[in-house]
TrEMBL record:
Keywords: Cadmium, DNA-binding, Phosphoprotein, Transcription, Transcription regulation, Two-component regulatory system. It comes from Thauera terpenica 58Eu. Coiled coil: none annotated. This is Transcriptional regulator. SMART domains: REC, Trans_reg_C. The modification 4-aspartylphosphate is found at D51. PANTHER family: REGULATOR OF RPOS, TRANSCRIPTIONAL REGULATORY PROTEIN CUSR-RELATED. Gene3D superfamilies: 3.40.50.2300, 6.10.250.690, Winged helix-like DNA-binding domain superfamily/Winged helix DNA-binding domain (1.10.10.10). The keyword DNA damage does not apply. InterPro entries: CheY-like_superfamily, CusR-like, OmpR/PhoB-type_DNA-bd, Sig_transdc_resp-reg_receiver, WalR-like, WH-like_DNA-bd_sf. CDD domains: REC_OmpR_CusR-like (cd19935), trans_reg_C (cd00383). Residues 124-222 bind DNA. It comes from the Bacteria. It holds the Pfam family Response_reg.
Amino acid sequence: MKILIVEDELKTGDYLRQGLTEAGYVVDLARDGLDGLHLALDGDYHLIVLDIMLPSLDGWGVLQKLRRSGRETPVLFLTARDEVADRVRGLELGADDYLVKPFAFAEFLARVRTLLRRGRISEPETLRSANLELDLLRRRVSRDGQRIDLTAKEFALLELLLRRQGEVLPRSLIASQVWDMNFDSDTNVIEVAVRRLRAKVDDAFEPKLIRTVRGMGYVLESMEPV
Ligand code: CA
């Protein structure tokens, strides 16, 4: 598995390269946007880790040119904490995920593994956890064999939670992916939607799957399908 890191901060770049190499990946490191873009276009990478603020060409520019050339290589964006609008913009431009600096290496590695796994498996038709089932083709949800009716937004929310099961999804990510809105907007919308979804999907069933992680977001427990 080959990973490209585009990061101009010397310490961060070296640290990520060393960590990923120790985790068994083949890693190239570019220190500016143009070098990164050239490597990304020439090399056969499974994943690109892309900083936003870069010399010569910023991360958005790299991503935009990469997508315009038809490359679907998964991209993990690295952003500073106060660049909320940037994150939304990155996702809109076709980034697959983002991570806010500073982050723990363990979290970074978990995101990397998830993106690599997602890229490798072909699109599943059914998403499952425990006795919960979401049929993407027929757009049907069932729990314990019982059909559950969801609104379009509830379906989209459950689909996102199931796709990223086991991961805590921040409200900002849910807002941008399901509601297409900025995370500064009224996040109450998300709480209400999660409550309704839970009432339909979790309340009358065991085990409980949707969990609130206080101050962080929501996670759908990843369990063996039954
Ligand atoms: Ca930077």
